[in-house]
């Protein structure tokens, strides 16, 4: 757990402002609080319910940049969460990025202050099964050479 959180701590961020906070959820009370925020149809809900730990990523938009319509707290958070996810994977731990939930319910359940956003959460635990890889676009569909749409 310490190594996984340390990987997130070391992530780069806008002006190194480190706008994120990570809440490690272990207790039944806190976990039930965040479970009520996740729609039943969300496949990630079962993983949160069964994992021993959930990590909730919060960010303060005021502690990151805004350039026009680009809100960099989301970029900062995405990088930090991916650091965490990759470090977890290196430890043999499973994660699932969960982005669909009722933010206000999570904030109230975990006493997250006004002004902070809940960007994502993930279960964390040893997976009980191997999931088969989901399809990805081919490299030529997503990588161009020199100009848009030219073959790589
Ligand atoms: C921003 C973001 C939000 C996501 N939200 C959810 C979610 O709410 N529930 C869920 O089960 N999976 C969620 N996922 C997981 C994606 O569905 C999953 O990563 C994608 O289908 C690819 O599958 P793979 O990670 O197994 O390769 C989310 C992933 C991202 C990056």
TrEMBL record:
Q: Per the record's keyword annotation, is Oxidoreductase included, yes or no?
A: yes
Q: What is this protein called?
A: Nitroreductase family protein
Say which family it is in. Answer: Belongs to the nitroreductase family.
Q: Which InterPro entries match?
A: Nitroreductase, Nitroreductase-like
One Pfam family, please name it: Nitroreductase
- Tell me the keywords, alphabetical order: Oxidoreductase
Please list the residue ranges annotated as the Nitroreductase domain. 2-126
Recorded GO molecular functions are:
oxidoreductase activity
């Amino acid at each position: 757990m310490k190594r996984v959180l340390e990987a997130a701590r070391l992530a780069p961020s806008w002006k190194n402002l480190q706008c994120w906070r990570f809440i490690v959820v272990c207790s039944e009370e806190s976990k039930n609080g965040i479970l009520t925020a996740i729609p039943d149809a969300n496949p990630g809900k079962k993983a949160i319910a069964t994992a021993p730990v959930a990590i909730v990523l919060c960010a303060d938009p005021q502690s990151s940049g805004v350039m026009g319509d680009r809100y960099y707290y989301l970029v900062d958070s995405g990088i930090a969460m991916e650091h965490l996810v990759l470090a977890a994977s290196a430890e043999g731990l499973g994660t699932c990025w969960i982005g669909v939930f009722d933010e206000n319910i999570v904030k109230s359940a975990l006493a997250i202050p006004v002004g902070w956003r809940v960007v994502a959460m993930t279960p964390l635990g040893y997976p009980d099964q191997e999931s088969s890889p989901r399809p990805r676009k081919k490299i030529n569909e997503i990588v161009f050479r020199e100009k848009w749409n030219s073959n790589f």
